[in-house]
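PROTEIN DESIGN WORKSHEET
SECTION A - STRUCTURE
LENGTH: 153
TOKENS:
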């Protein structure tokens, strides 16, 4: 028990498990056919982790403190622009983590599916400019319909 996906305090869940075992035994429900073996292993601390788990050190945003402060502000601004639903579609567990990845250069802002239209907006504008620039229609000649409209005016 424990970690980023823990829904409940480990001490509360520990007591709930003990209560559940007592209730099952009291009501003589055979949820686990080897409950005595499980209790024996539990009393021998078989299910406990030996030793101390050391946390992994956090990597700073930058080695230079001034740059790290700027990146932190940038991270906060990016996080404000995100939907904050922590969907994980971008590959990061939370929007805040995604914002940090963007600041570190490990992800692009357009990796967020909610920013996906922006990903297509720029190429379509580039394509429109290229199309207009290299268009095969003559800019001096106009279609017969357009010439007729001009003559009427």
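SECTION B - SEQUENCE
RESIDUE ASSIGNMENT:
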């Amino acid at each position: 028990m424990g970690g980023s996906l823990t829904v409940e305090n480990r001490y509360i869940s520990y007591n709930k498990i003990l209560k559940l075992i007592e209730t099952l035994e009291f009501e003589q429900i055979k949820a686990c056919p080897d409950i005595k073996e499980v209790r024996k292993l539990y009393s021998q601390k078989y299910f406990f982790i030996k030793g101390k788990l050391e946390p992994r050190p956090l990597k700073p945003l930058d080695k230079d403190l001034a740059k790290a402060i700027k990146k932190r502000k940038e991270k906060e601004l990016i996080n404000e622009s995100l939907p904050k639903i922590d969907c994980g579609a971008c590959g990061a567990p939370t929007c805040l983590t995604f914002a940090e990845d963007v600041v570190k250069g490990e992800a692009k802002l357009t990796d967020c599916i909610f920013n996906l239209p922006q990903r297509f907006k720029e190429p379509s504008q580039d394509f429109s400019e290229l199309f207009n620039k290299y268009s095969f229609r003559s800019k001096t000649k106009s279609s017969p319909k357009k010439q007729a409209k001009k003559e009427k005016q």
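SECTION C - NOTES
Residues 116-133 form the longest helix (18 residues).
The chain has a mean pLDDT of 77.
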